[in-house]
Amino acid sequence: MPEQAPVFRGEDGEDYSLIPLSVMRRKTLVNFQIRDDEDRSVAMPSLRQNQAITESLLLACADATTRKQ
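and the corresponding C-alpha cells:
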C-alpha cells in the first residue's frame, strides 16, 4: 500500500485507505486480491472498463462545472 494513500475513518471506527486502483497497472500487481464483505473475490476492471469509467467521470465533472456558471 502506498504511504501517500489517504486514510479515512469509517462509521464503524475502522480506518480505511483509499487506493486508486484504476491508475495501478495490472502487470505490477503481484498476488493482489480484492475481496468483498463475504470474502468473495472481486474482479479487477479491464483497461477498457477503466477508460470508460474515467471518461464518464470526466464528462460528469465537466457537465457539473458548466451548469454552475
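(Above: one complete record from the training split.) The radius of gyration is 16 Å.
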